[in-house]
């Protein structure tokens, strides 16, 4: 399950592995632009190229969709930046459990924008985490983690690309360790949890009284979207 470009390396890694993909679940095509042309998600396009069956429910939590997917009895469901909250009924579908790939070192930066927030806050290290999904937001038991440095020249796009590639590798390693029964899920320390809320366009406004380091982190953390801007004569 996935929608944006971040999920592509994981899909490709699974496709070229020994694992069998029953189907790809992604968001429905959405109209975009002045012409309101239906836009295909990056994951759907790659799934089409790889001849993988595609499912695009309006909501994955609909009882009829859950019943249909349950009839296939998947061993595991891999979720990477899908874009919908999954119900407890959905999480019970696989024989094993649903595994989520998250782009931070949990419990730090739970939520929608961990990559951007780590740069905005001036962090020097980050990583990816696989976890067992539960009804909370990024609160499930941790399976595996992998760290990487955040370079001073990194921006949100370059770090996104690094973590997405790492994620594909980590998902395969997670599945391998689970098959070998050598992986013990570890509960998160909820007392040390931090959150990474969704970005707002107004966060790009430059406040010149801030330090040069803070401004540089703002530029990096908000590239390519929403970008940074300033006002001249309040315009």
UniProtKB/TrEMBL annotation:
Residues 2-173 form the Formyl transferase N-terminal domain. One of its GO terms (molecular function) is methionyl-tRNA formyltransferase activity. Pfam families: Formyl_trans_C, Formyl_trans_N. This is methionyl-tRNA formyltransferase. InterPro entries: Fmt, Formyl_trans_C, Formyl_transf_N, Formyl_transf_N_sf, Formyl_transferase-like_C_sf, Met-tRNA-FMT_C, Met-tRNA-FMT_N. Keywords: Protein biosynthesis, Transferase. One of its GO terms (cellular component) is cytosol. HAMAP family: Formyl_trans (MF_00182). Its EC number is 2.1.2.9. It comes from marine metagenome.
